[in-house]
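hiii so my PI (J.) wants the whole complex modelled not just the main chain, which honestly fair. so below is everything: two entries, each one labled with what it is. i double checked the lines twice but i was tired so who knows lol
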Amino acid sequence: MRAETTGPAPQLPEKHYLNATYGIRSWLLTTDHKRIALLYLASVTFFFFIGGFFAMMIRLHLLTPNGYLLTPDQYNRMFTMHGVTMVFFFLIPSIPAILGNFLIPIMIGAKDLAFPKINLLSWYIYILGGAFTLWSMINGGLDTGWTFYTPLSTIYSNSAVAPAVVGVFITGFSSILTGLNFLVTVHTMRAPGMTWFRLPLFVWAHYATSIVMILGTPVIAITLGLAAMERVFGLGFFNPAMGGDPILFQHLFWFYSHPAVYIMILPAMGVISELIPTFARKRLFGYHFVAAASLAIAVIGFVVWTHHMFLTGQSTYAAVAFSFLTFIVAIPSAIKTFNWTATLFGGSISFDTPMLYAFGFLGLFMIGGLTGLFLGALGVDINIHDTYFVVAHFHYIMVGGAVMGYLGGLHFWWPKITGRMYPEWLARIAAFILFIGFNFTFFPQFIVGIMGMPRRYHTYPPEFQIYNVMSTAGASILAVGYLLPMVYLTWAAFYGKVAGENPWPATGLEWKTQSPPLTENFEVTPVVTWEAYDFHNRPDLGLDVPSGKGSPGVVAPAHGDD
Amino acid sequence: MHRTGSLYGQFKTLEQQKDTATLGMWIFLVTEVMFFGGIMLAYTINRHTYFHAFAMGSNTLSLLLGTCNTGVLLASSFTMVLAVWSAQTGKKKLIPIFLTLTIILGLIFFGVKYVEYAQKFHHHLVPGKTFDISYCVDNPSKCEDIDAADLAKEREEIDAARAADPDLNAHAQLYYSAYFGMTGLHALHMVIGVGLLLWLLKESFAEKFTAEWNNPVDIVGLYWHFVDIVWIYLFPLLYLIDRHK
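here's the output for the full assembly
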């Protein structure tokens, strides 16, 4: 447990970023990265529950083979809007725009991001894009699948495609500006002594994410822009009637949307790289390799996109090359997973809630990652392409990986963001509920996928019903797992126990300032003289671990009740 | 963050602020390269597949107007450089003059572009149901702005192209999709550029830029040059595919 037994109970600081100014204007016109992070938190949570509502409708409909809840047309709209909301309005902004926004400047010892006004602008762009997409959802919805494949989206669909595409197009610029801001900030705003290899791996992960954001997002922007112009003004790049090529759309779409998967998972990996050393009380094993693996994922991730298109009739040689590259991109992820596991070895592990999420991430991400290799293998993919196996695979990555990381990070930094602790036992129970509900929902989908149930169909043969019932039951457990943290984290923000500067304790710079921090983050610019996660040379943390260099393998004595 | 003079609160020195802003603009330009890259890829693939239609489409553009706009933009780059130079050397009175010249050249570009676009509408060269690559050669009376000799030449070219590509009219629409897509996006960037120049003009009248602090002029200059460079690519890609032999 936490080393907090001695000394007087911590008090909330008198002045911090939350009470520096008051009023709605002070929030809507703020340029403080911490307040913008909270604006994002509110809006991203809003979209998460909208997306969750669509998911619930899908699962309820699939409870019976013939599905009585929705018409086929409504069902198409539900899974489309679920995908669009969750991918573009929840997963992509979740960790970077909330936790990254809040933490990166503090972690590197800066007063703010490099471009605070652009940071605020990016939130407004996100809201504008979200408004367009919501408008589409209210005015008949969208039925193209989240992939907007042409010519369905440009010619045949009768749903409100144009506003949704325009909304996603607009939101892309919010992502581009966030990535740009992070890149520049990491380059030019680091505090004295904060060298590149002293950066927390959370920052490295976001640096890699930002590279994907700035190189990939403009391509989806132009692609969706062209699709929208095709639908509205009759341009012809993707229109077979003019000799255009729908497959070109798929190439351009996946050129972004595969790397976008890494926009979603890399930040979660960054969170896990913070959680594991903190709750194992050990320097992260192979720091340089984990940092480099983030960059490797970002770079290699750009050359695997056609593995989504093995069945489009592309050349066999291209398919072989992309299959090979898909296997290659798994290597840096594996490096990270092994390094996290190796960090646990000989560590002094405590099972606080964030660590439970980290463990959840490790297991689920491993399943999700390895099943990704099934899909990257040419022969196997022909069999399981567009089945529930794919659905289960990417939910293990996106929910089991990205959302676990997001919630773990939210718990870990909640005392920093709000200055108050969440209720520990309730949080542990919620983490367990989430883990169980998640596996209940998605593991049966692997099985039913292998058995041949196609995705996106509104009916299925009766023999698949048992798996779908399990899945729907699991989804309802999962829903409880999401609602609980929302309720108690909100409660804790106002009534939780005061946390103090460094409740865990953890090593990052963000824990060397008050909680919640000042608007300027630090009273004086910090000077960094220590390495990242160096628990052994940090007497200021008050930890009972042996000091001295070169002892990463030394077993720290057990402490507390663990 | 509080601002003291030109220095924003999150920075320690003007030097740091300058490096940051410049790096930010360069990274933004990288995103722009990717943005235009997507549509240029679509152009390249289609031009490769439907070369005859693309060459024919290109021949229906006005080389005179395109060349004219290329000259205008190159001149505007020159005046922009002079504005940056006068800012860096502290010639405060010169900055607004050169900025104004740049804005005027930008507006001339829009004027020429307007004439070109209007022509395309009159000549039924906008993708859609009314698109007809041979509209002018079939209806010479409706296209009085093209002289008879050119129309006769165009007739020959269209016949040759149609012999090579029977679906010429459909594929020529792809060319015009590229034309309007690319020049439209470029024009949108010019509009933003002129907006930025107007802001610089206002600031320069207030004498905000000194030899020590002139970074806004510098990075808007970067943007303006980038937009010009895009045109330097668009001009040969669209106007010079396979000019009259």
